[in-house]
């Protein structure tokens, strides 16, 4: 009987310790809206989208409170999550676009040999293939990207209808450097052309991938786009980052495309969460 009594005490202590630890692990995050004249409806819609994104990443329970007076959202998570794992889910706009791309060979002749850009970027030869393909102007370390962005804003974005739209690769290459893609200024397709997305684990390589299915208008656009870009790359861009830029081998009539690459299951699930729950109607920043 004495041993049973000890066991009961230990169980009660363990349960008490668990409840205290759980209470302490609750994480509260405040998002401040930076869009002027944000309406109550837009704030409520944003709260719903963010809540669904987080729940799709198995972070339940999630509570989101809207403060219309301060134009902010307070998010409460049931456990501590590193911010770098969820910042995109919280403040990522959720834009999805499909772009035609420029080949490096067509752009390099316009860059002077003494251009400071050549010091900021590792620029391969005209036709040299890289891990990112031939549609990147060059690569650089993460720490150099702000300097490259500043230079491009000041010297290369002049005429919106003619200038190149630059976007970084979502992930670095094996050497740790990011690729700077060269896109046509306007997207050929966007999120309005997508019917649904889903995580696909059936690939023979065992690598997770994201399957995107287009709606009827999107299927027609995808067939036209891929038919006109055979031998060229089409970039799939989420939140202005290039996740995939496959070379089109033939016209695709089935209304499906895949995002593949060196992605973990968590990264693919995050992409699915961003794609599946819509675009935020407002801009937010983390209130640290």
Strand content: 15-25%
Q: Give the SSE order as H and E letters.
A: HEHEEHEHHEHEEEEEHEEEHE
Shape, per Cα inertia axes: globular
Report the radius of gyration as a whole number of Å. Answer: 23 Å
Q: Strand order of the main beta sheet, please?
A: 5-7-6-12-11-4-8
Mean pLDDT: 87
Looking at the structure, the CATH topology of the largest domain is: Alpha-Beta Plaits
- Uncertain spans: 1-23
SS summary, helix count: 8
What is the annotated CATH architecture of the largest domain?
2-Layer Sandwich
Describe this structure in words.
The chain is of the alpha+beta class. The chain has 3 domains: 2-95, 2-Layer Sandwich (Alpha-Beta Plaits); 102-183, no CATH class; 187-276, Gyrase A, domain 2 (2-Layer Sandwich). It has helices at residues 2-24, 40-56, 83-91, 104-107, 117-120, 145-155, 216-228, 265-276; strands at residues 27-33, 62-67, 72-77, 96-100, 136-140, 165-169, 178-183, 189-190, 194-200, 209-214, 234-238, 241-244, 256-259, 284-286. The chain has a 7-stranded mixed sheet. Strand 11 (234-238) and strand 12 form a beta hairpin. Helix 2 runs antiparallel to helix 8 (265-276). It is globular, with a radius of gyration of 23 Å. It starts with a helix and ends with a strand. Residues 1-23 have low confidence and may be disordered.
């Amino acid at each position: 009987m004495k041993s049973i009594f000890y066991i009961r005490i230990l169980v009660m202590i363990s349960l008490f310790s668990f409840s205290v630890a759980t209470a302490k692990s609750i994480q509260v995050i405040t998002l401040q809206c930076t869009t002027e004249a944000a309406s109550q409806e837009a704030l409520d819609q944003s709260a719903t989208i963010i809540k669904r994104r987080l729940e799709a990443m198995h972070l339940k329970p999630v509570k989101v409170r809207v403060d219309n007076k301060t134009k902010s959202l307070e998010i409460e998570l049931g456990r501590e999550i590193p911010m770098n794992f969820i910042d995109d889910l919280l403040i990522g706009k959720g834009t999805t676009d499909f772009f035609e791309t420029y080949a490096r060979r067509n752009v390099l002749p316009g860059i002077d040999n003494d251009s400071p850009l050549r010091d900021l970027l590792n620029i391969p030869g005209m036709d040299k293939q890289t891990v990112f393909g031939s549609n990147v102007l060059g690569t650089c370390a993460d720490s150099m990207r702000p300097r490259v962005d500043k230079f491009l804003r000041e010297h290369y974005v002049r005429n919106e209808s003619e200038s190149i739209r630059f976007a970084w690769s979502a992930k670095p290459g094996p050497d740790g450097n990011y690729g700077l893609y060269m896109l046509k200024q306007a997207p050929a397709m966007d999120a309005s052309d997508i019917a649904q997305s889903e995580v696909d684990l059936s690939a023979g390589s065992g690598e997770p991938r994201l399957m995107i299915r287009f709606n009827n208008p999107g299927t027609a656009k995808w067939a036209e786009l891929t038919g006109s870009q055979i031998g060229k790359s089409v970039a799939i861009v989420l939140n202005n980052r290039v996740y995939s830029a496959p070379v089109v081998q033939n016209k695709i009539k089935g209304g499906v495309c895949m995002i593949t690459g060196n992605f973990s299951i968590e990264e693919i699930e995050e992409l699915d969460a961003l794609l599946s729950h819509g675009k935020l109607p407002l801009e937010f920043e983390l209130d640290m």
